[in-house]
Specification:
By secondary structure, the protein is of the alpha/beta class. It is 44% helix and 15% strand. α1 packs across α5 and α9 crosses α10 (226-237). The model is unreliable at 128-145 and 176-185 (pLDDT under 50).
């Protein structure tokens, strides 16, 4: 997000806009405030984590509620940013995606090599565009060369796994209730290309993982992030992981 906002500022924009159910709104508002810019946030009716909403508001963002779901809100911000001088900072923003790449660099630098698998929570597969396979191509060009590529694995939203719309999505994972699988094809192809896979996880599995990571690691992540932990359990039960393999499981947001 800081890449997206910094580029918007450098290009002369004085405001940013996003659709959000949580993390995007909080970070967009914070970085916009730091840059002296305005932030506009569109949220789906009743479908936002209140902790994240309070962060957006305390940073001075203008928050508007949309009579619809996340996809309706995203459609509106795309229209607004196309017509008016306000920068869209959702995952469709190419500079935001470039910024996410740094997470892959950190993993390689910390481990000394790419892990066997990188497991992510998958909502619309935006994060996996850059950090998923621990970026064999960017890592090899821009940091110390890893000896192998990480495989992408994920646990998350039904539209991504099924490859079909979900008419009335309801889930405890506020970041995952997308009606239209906008990135289904690219997300699925990306996972398969690096020898990985994505599995659908239920609310019950997410909540079990949510509790587990808090009790065993002292990390109070958000339910949507716990989908990555739930994915590890589900994929592991299918026998895909082998003894001695190194897995990195990313939690992308706190409660």
């Amino acid at each position: 997000m800081t890449m997206a906002v910094s580029k918007a500022k450098a290009d002369g924009s004085d405001s940013v806009i996003c659709a959000s159910t949580g993390n995007t709104s909080a970070s967009a508002a914070a970085y916009a405030a730091r840059a002296g810019m305005k932030a506009f946030v569109l949220i789906p009716e009743g479908k936002i984590a209140l902790g994240k909403l309070s962060q957006a508001m305390i940073h001075g963002a203008q928050v508007l509620q949309v009579l619809g779901n996340f996809d309706d809100a995203l459609s509106l911000v795309k229209e607004v940013s196309a017509k008016y001088p306000v920068t869209l900072v959702n995952s469709l923003n190419p500079y935001r995606i470039e910024g996410q790449k740094s997470a892959a660099f950190e993993i390689v630098r910390r481990l000394g090599d790419a892990p066997d698998y990188h497991i992510l929570p998958v909502g619309n597969a935006g994060t996996s565009r850059r950090t998923g396979p621990v970026q064999a191509v960017p890592c090899r060009r821009e940091v110390e060369t890893p000896s192998r590529d990480a495989r992408l694995a994920g646990g998350g939203a039904a539209p991504i796994v099924r490859g079909a719309p979900v008419a009335k999505p309801e889930t405890v994972a506020h970041r995952h209730p997308y009606r239209e699988p906008r990135l289904v094809e690219t997300g699925g192809r990306r996972a398969r290309r690096v020898g990985g896979f994505i599995r659908m996880v239920s609310d019950a599995e997410i909540l079990e993982a949510y509790k587990l990571v808090a009790e065993t690691e002292g990390v109070f992540c958000e339910p949507a992030s716990a989908a990555s932990i739930a994915g590890v359990d589900k994929i592991g039960s299918e026998g895909f992981f082998r003894a001695g393999q190194r897995l990195v499981c990313t939690l992308t947001g706190m409660a």
